[in-house]
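Minutes, project check-in

Agenda point 3 was the complex the collaborators sent over. CS summarized: two entities, 566 residues total, and the question is how they sit relative to each other. Sequences were read into the notes so everyone works from the same version.
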Amino acid sequence: LKIDGKTRLCAVLGNPVEHSLSPALHNAAFEAEGLNLCYAAFRVEDLAGALAGARALNLLGLSVTIPHKVAVMQYLDEVDETASRIGSVNTVIHRDGKLYGTNSDGMGALRARRESGAGLEGARVLVLGSGGAARAVAFTLGKEAALKEMVLLGVLEHECAALCESLSRAAAFPVRWEPMNPETLKRNAAASDGVIHCTPVGMHPNTGESLLARGDLRPEQFVFDIVYTPRRTRLLQEAEAAGCRTVQGVEMFLYQAVFQFELWTGRKAPVEVMRRVVMACLA
Amino acid sequence: LKIDGKTRLCAVLGNPVEHSLSPALHNAAFEAEGLNLCYAAFRVEDLAGALAGARALNLLGLSVTIPHKVAVMQYLDEVDETASRIGSVNTVIHRDGKLYGTNSDGMGALRARRESGAGLEGARVLVLGSGGAARAVAFTLGKEAALKEMVLLGVLEHECAALCESLSRAAAFPVRWEPMNPETLKRNAAASDGVIHCTPVGMHPNTGESLLARGDLRPEQFVFDIVYTPRRTRLLQEAEAAGCRTVQGVEMFLYQAVFQFELWTGRKAPVEVMRRVVMACLA
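CS then shared the predicted structure for the full assembly.
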């Protein structure tokens, strides 16, 4: 990585950001493509100042992470429809003096699936969770994928009902929700073509936990897990044992970064370079 | 250069900055010392926003260049005595949430001289020019070096008189000025122990110009030239021909950067690494 007087900067804003993989990932991609760009991580408390800085220092793009994904929206010139509905922005593009916000988290899931050679068209999809990740996946699929049906299961019933209601207005397919419990999990998993897990269950250090067991799953189903520490969560192990096709959270993380790269640079991302870096960082 | 989630950023703010040598110079120094720092260049129009950004993004240090060296002062928490007197800041240190301003341009000249094994103590010094560079050199010597006398020659008489007056109050040695013309140049050069040239005369593309010729100089004298494009200006060629000791502008540029590095990091700078980079960039 070489920085000179013409190098433009991209950055992730979050708090904390010390353990972010994004600098390694994006810098490897910039370097592989011979782009005069570099990517840094900023631990930010004063978000207004950070966004004023992004404008004044002419940063090319931002990744935005916890706890700033919602608050960042007020400092942008435009937020696209999907990010507005999700209610959070994880990607900012600086173009012609304006800051545009979008959300690549759901696209990460969708592209990870498509790159594995399959879409979600016509599928009955069960989404577990109703937080930020679930919203990102649900609204992105609502806009981008012609599902047959989506079912939401959540522990926070108000949150889940609200997500279901606003998603129903935005999506072309039917959406319904139920409170999450052992019975609803089992029944809705059985009735689905696949499951997208969007809760922290099973994340390090609670790696023994899973919302579903192999007995709840069939070989024709697919299972995505947004959790990527560990890479093979208990849920994915159960799904593999049941013969399901799986998509690891690390693939979703990778593809949301791929999507960011492509938005910032207008070029196809060097996916294999980026995958190698992510895998090396997580190994 | 490797950037991860813990890397802190330094930067130069200016307009233009596309051809700045500072990123190559400081990044090489950071890398040589194994510091988790990197240095970028930002072309800045909105200086208030840039300084808000420097705070919010927790930049470690800034270099400030044309046209922002004066205006930047209003955005800092503290400006040291020398920089206040010079009336401009080219170096900002971010420490404990505060931005401190100083000016390393004059220290560059003084250290370049000292590193060559000689000081300026007891010398009668002729300073040519009364602009920003002359102010930086004059006030820094006024504070840091026990000269015998300083004479200022300038074309802009009000500017030169004002510099002389304020410098007289700050320095422990006598200071006087005269309007710059062929006669005052010749006479004051003859009466001095050495000359510090702080005007743009002789800078690329006007490389044939010089305020002094070899006949004006004696072998016991020293001649500094702040101009560093070309490295060997016409003035320095004349001085060498007269047998004088010379200090190139590139050495002053180098040592002001060395001084910045040491202020930001609290360590001794890898001067030889930095010199190699500057020489390679200018070659």
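Noted in discussion: The CA atoms of residues 18 and 82 of chain A lie 29 Å apart.
Follow-up: revisit at the next meeting once the mutant set is ready.
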